[in-house]
Amino acid sequence: MGITTRSLWTLIHGMGFGALYLLACSGAIALLFLHSSPKADAHSTPGMDRVLGIYITVMSALAWLTVLSGTYVVYPWYRAAVPAGTTNLGAFPRALLLSNPATRQWHSLGMEWKEHVAWLVPIAITMAAFVAIKYARDLKHSPPLRSAVIGFVATSLFAAGIAGFFGAMLDKNAPVDGGQFIHVAQGE
Amino acid sequence: MSTDALISDTSIPEKSDSSIPNGSAAAAILSAGIGSLAVALLTIVADQSATVKSLLSIYKPTGALSGVTTFAVVFWLVAWTLLEWRWRGRYVSLKRINLMAFTLLALSLLATFPPLGDLL
Known about the structure:
The structure holds two protein chains of two kinds. By secondary structure, chain A is mostly helical. Chain A has one domain (2-38, 53-80, 91-183). Chain A has helices spanning 5-35, 40-43, 46-78, 93-98, 104-117, 120-134, 138-141, 143-173; strands spanning 2-4, 181-183. In chain A, strands 1-2 form a two-stranded antiparallel ribbon. Chain A is elongated. By secondary structure, chain B is mainly alpha-helical. Chain B has helices spanning 12-17, 23-48, 50-56, 64-87, 94-112, 114-117. The two termini of chain B are 24 Å apart. Mean pLDDT of chain B is 89; it is low at 9-14. The interface between A and B is large, with 38 and 41 residues.
């Protein structure tokens, strides 16, 4: 049993950073609502404010790691040019998808949208982290400030969901594979 | 619209909501909208001009995506720095800032959708 280096990086990008980000989004939205509930003042402590700031900062780091690993590690393998005379397109996912009318849209719609919309996520969540840290106490008392943070976190969830969905479907139709084979467990 | 127009003359309710001036928050919120729109606009421009696409390919293995995202992040950070410098320590009408930022964010989401981006 084993995995290739390209598959491993795809896993780290999508199932590691990306999926963790998506999971963390619901937690952030729940924390922000709890933080702003009418009873929040009674239970709120500076420690809880700090937890919210740290939580969203970790999400921000995950978002940056996701887009940077996707753009600069996995994407070059996905879009690699096909050498002349190549008949097996298995190692060239973009060319493989475009070679078949039934899968062409996964690239021209799916990948084209995913690769750009994903970059809205780190921008939105970095802003949310900055505001959550600098204005921790004010989030409870300023509805416009709270709306901005919750709105941008929710939008980042939507954008990350689009990127995650198309990432999974692209990998299902034309996986990024190849490179060195890493043995995980030895068969008998 | 001048950034001065967004500094609230009648911000007493918002002023009392905040323990510290909200200018830095407003700068972060609006610049996030500007950065998002920069991603979408650069994507459209790169898609429609082979010259721009080539210029934006600052890292060949990734192609134009490298330039689109790098320059969008630069625009975002420059906008954030300028707005922070302008609004730091001041009270700003956050409702108007939110309206502008969410409009920019919605436009960005729409413009990155390839069938709509191709229409522009």
